[in-house]
Amino acid sequence: MENKDLINYIDKLKEPKILVIGDFALDEMIYGNTERISREAPVLILEHYETKKILGAASNAANNVSAINCGKVSALGVYGDDYYGRELLRILEEKNIDTNLMVLDETRKTTTKTRISGSCNQSITQQIVRIDRQTKTQLNPEIEQKIIENIKKSIKNFDGVILSDYHLGCLTQNIITATIEEAKKYNIIVVADIQKDMEKYKGVYAITPNQPDSEKQAGFFIKDDKTLFMAGEKLLKELDLKKVLLTRGENGMALFEKDGEEVIFKKVPAYNKKEVFDVTGAGDTVVAVFTLGLCSGLDGEVAMRLGNLAASIVIRYFGCHTVTCEDLKEEINV
């Protein structure tokens, strides 16, 4: 299949309604120009000129879905009773993401990663320090139950669910199990974007891990097509999955699908190797496009290729970035 053949499928990505459940977060970017060295301590003094707040983690996955399907997406996670919690809700709504299912947890901080960057004349902007505000412990039972109740009352309204796990405590085993059980009642596709603890996700429809995490789960290194197939096959069988989309960085992607007792294996090369500036958030883009493709009835290989194409666009930008259907079409027509 050539890239030009994909253009016939792109508009289908606008159709499905998606629920994103997981660890919602903000990325705060603070920029300043170097002014002088402080007299109080040997540190830089920056003259502040800009602050940006960007959706990160599960928020970025939801943002990517919204950019493609024109806002047919809802967010389900937790936020704190703090300034950043209010900012998180505001920006989610600004990006046309429904927040009615979000749950306030007064015991937790709203996950926020603040990056302070500086520059001076004739130099590029460089990150100086990062400050993380987060609560990593699992949810307390009361908040966990509220999320499960929201899943049970709303999941039937969606075509697909993305579980976005950044290991910040929102996706407990009870929440994952409830999602899988409720989704099966309504034949809803559940795709998990995960890095570790893959056993927790046994029984979801598909997962989208990267190669290093897949190697850890499989117990061996992927060195060639033979070991690549062995890893994909092992993940499918051990985790009771229908599909595995294994992202491989500069080596592209590999898709493994269960067809009865047979495992079908397909792979694609990376579409863009020359203009890579930042891979931050690319995984969120891939899971968004792949899930939208599956939920709109596209073949797994087509969904993979569209995800690969979308990733080739977002990695050309610094920080988290989104794509639209028009961006995808333009990329194919170049």
Distinctive features:
334 residues; alpha/beta; eight-stranded mixed sheet; four-stranded mixed sheet; globular
What do these coordinates show?
By secondary structure, the chain is α/β, with parallel strands linked by helices. The protein has helices spanning 58-69, 83-94, 141-154, 173-185, 211-218, 225-238, 282-295, 300-314, 325-333, and strands at residues 18-22, 24-37, 44-57, 73-76, 78-79, 103-104, 112-119, 126-133, 160-164, 189-193, 206-207, 243-247, 253-259, 262-268. The strands form three sheets. Strands 4-1-9-10-11-12-13-14 form an eight-stranded mixed sheet, with helices on both faces. Strands 3-2-7-8 form a four-stranded mixed sheet. 43% of the residues are buried. The mean pLDDT is 91.
Structure summary:
The protein has about 325 residues and is α/β, with parallel strands linked by helices. The protein is about 35% helix and about 25% strand. The strands form three sheets. It has an eight-stranded mixed beta sheet with strand order 4-1-9-10-11-12-13-14, with helices on both faces.
Strand order of the largest sheet: 4-1-9-10-11-12-13-14
* Arithmetic mean pLDDT: 91
Spell the H/E element sequence.
Answer: EEEHEEHEEEHEHEEHHEEEHHH
Note the main sheet.
8 strands, mixed
- Name the structural class: alpha/beta
Low-confidence stretches: none
Helix content: 25-40%
Radius of gyration from CA coordinates: 20 Å
| Termini Cα gap | 17 Å
Shape: globular
**Quick one: how many beta strands?**
14
Helix run count: 9
The amount of beta strand, in percent, is 25-35%
